[in-house]
Amino acid sequence: MQTAGGFPVLIRAFRLALVVEGLRPHTVYNYTRNAERLATYFQDRVPKSISASDIRTYVATLQERLAPKTIHEDQLALRRFFRYLVREGEIRRDPTSDMKLMRYRVNPQPTYTEAEVRRLLTVCDQRTRKGVRDRALVTVLFDTGAREGEIASMVLPDWELRTVWVDGKIGKRQVYLGMAALQSVERYTRRWGIMEGPLWIGKKGQLTGSGILQIIRRLCLRAEVEHKAVHGFRRAAAAQMKRRYTSVVAGELAQLAHDRYSPRDALKRR
């Protein structure tokens, strides 16, 4: 049954459906933003009047100012939006059903190798407080694949569950620590006397994302390793897990998987 709702009402309903479905806040924001962009283009129209030809014209206008990857993501959002409208009975036919997704090339991104991670760990002098902290930082970066902002947001982990809360690009979530990472963090917090509050500390207090980046840059220089930013650890961790598992696991399955295999623990065994 169709209602009299135009784009604003239906986009609001679409956003609520995405939240109820459990999508991450960042994903909900992107899908909603892309639907709103479509609504702006067809500002004098209602969704049920949009045809497949209209969608092709709209995508052609996106090609004038957006990168292929961005257009691909926009198309995925539109497909989801119109499929939602079909399920809700707001439109009879999905105008994106025959839409061909934009192809794009993914350029290889710089990633730290296992040998480079070992060299970074080696230059962390365990006789000094700073060296103990830096080794723990590199270990956690490689073990969890957490983003720069997520690392900066960390507080003390749950020592029994081997988990730590992070907050960043995709909202709050828990990440699991392998035994080597947990041991490094325990040694660091004990040496620095950290009992509560932020996990990563520098001379002037809590480390920021910029501070973490400076530490990694300094370690790379000392170890004679090409600096690949903090995200290079995320790619390295993903590559390690991909070699071990053919699918992404989450929640309790992720913890079980980490019990069996942790990127940092794997380095320790070799």
Protein described:
This protein has 270 residues and is mainly alpha-helical. The protein has 2 domains: 7-87, DNA polymerase, domain 1; 114-269, hpI Integrase, Chain A, CATH 1.10.443.10. The protein has 12 helices and 4 strands; from the N terminus they run H-H-H-H-H-H-H-E-E-H-E-E-H-H-H-H. The longest helix is centred in the first third of the chain and has 20 residues, at 68-87.
SSE map:
Elements lengths: L6 H15 L3 H17 L10 H11 L5 H20 L26 H9 L6 H16 L3 H6 L9 E6 L2 E6 L2 H14 L8 E2 L2 E2 L2 H15 L7 H14 L6 H10 L2 H7 L1
Antiparallel strand pairs: 1-2, 3-4
User: Percent of residues in helical segments?
Assistant: 55-70%
What value does the Rg take, in angstroms? 23 Å
| Largest pleated sheet | 2 strands, antiparallel
Strand count: 4
The CATH class of the largest domain is identified as Mainly Alpha
Any idea what the CATH superfamily of the largest domain is called?
Intergrase catalytic core
Strand order of the largest sheet: 1-2
Number of domains: 2
Question: Which shape, going by the Cα principal axes?
Answer: elongated
Query: What is the overall pLDDT average?
Result: 86
Q: How big a fraction of the residues is strand?
A: 5-15%
Say what the CATH topology of the largest domain is: hpI Integrase, Chain A
Distance between the termini: 63 Å
In DSSP terms (H or I, runs of 4 or more residues), the helix count works out at: 12
Give helix and strand order, one letter per element, not per position.
HHHHHHHEEHEEHHHH
- Would you identify the CATH architecture of the largest domain? Orthogonal Bundle
The stretches of 5 or more residues where confidence is low (pLDDT under 50) are 246-261
Structural class: mainly alpha
